[in-house]
Amino acid sequence: MEVLGHRGSRTPGPENTVEAVDAALRAGADGVELDIRRSADGDLVCVHDARLPRFGGRAVIRRSTRELASRGIPALTEMLDVWGGRGRLILEIKNQPGQPDFDAPRERTARALVELLRARGHAAPAITVSSFDWFAIEAVRDAGIGVGTAFLTMPRMSVSGGIAYVRSAGHTELHAHVSAVRGVPDAVRRARSAGVRLVTWTVTEAEAALELRDAGVDGIICDDPAGISRALGRG
């Protein structure tokens, strides 16, 4: 079972930073997951929330890349450099209704990510792009750059529904909420029968990690990859 650091590593953090990515990979994580948004310049930056208190509640999309960097929000290019092909990289495109940078189905963030990855020539098989927004991952899938795509689902969505969409749309993985997976005893069997890799988010306790490993899930996205790796007897 793959152990993937949530937002790099939320423990000890700070999340979505160079330090978090490096810490997770040095601790033995199989890879990391990062959040992607656009700045006012159209650049891609790594941050979870659309609005931040440190900007007086103003939207990330209204701030320049330079200003964001001065407040501790790195550009994706910087994060790609520190990752450097060490393990897997999950890039979650943040594009949700009601948020100031929501633009489905235009998908400017997804298209900017495609162009960046194409230009940099990164090892495509090691990268998976995920999102709650199926238009985003379909745009990446259709770009033909060789990266994997994963549908990210909320707790209320059934595992069966997620698997059905992933299979029909030709994506590679379902990233289902841990509560949904733990609530369906045959979730792993259903995913494998459909040829879909099953990854769960977000694992915060060692007990859940052990249970999911024993159930046979393909990977977990966890807040404390170092601690979870130790609990799994990996270091």
Give a quick rundown of the structure.
This protein is α/β, with parallel strands linked by helices and 235 residues long. 37% of the residues lie in helices and 20% in strands.
Strands, helices and their partners?
Layout: E1 2-6, H1 18-26, E2 31-38, E3 44-46, H2 65-70, H3 76-83, E4 88-93, H4 108-120, E5 127-131, H5 134-143, E6 148-152, H6 159-169, E7 173-177, H7 178-182, H8 187-194, E8 197-203, H9 206-215, E9 219-222, H10 225-231
Parallel strand pairs: 1-2, 1-9, 2-4, 4-5, 5-6, 6-7, 7-8, 8-9
Antiparallel strand pairs: 2-3
Structure notes:
By secondary structure, the protein is α/β, with parallel strands linked by helices. It has one domain (about 1-35, about 85-230): Phosphatidylinositol (PI) phosphodiesterase (TIM Barrel). Helix content is about 35%, strand content about 20%. The chain has ten helices and nine strands. An eight-stranded parallel β-barrel has the order 1-2-4-5-6-7-8-9, surrounded by seven helices. β8 (about 195-205), α9 (about 205-215) and β9 (about 220) form a beta-alpha-beta unit. α1 (about 20-25) runs parallel beside α3, α4 (about 110-120) runs parallel beside α5 and α6 (about 160-170) packs parallel to α8 (about 185-195).
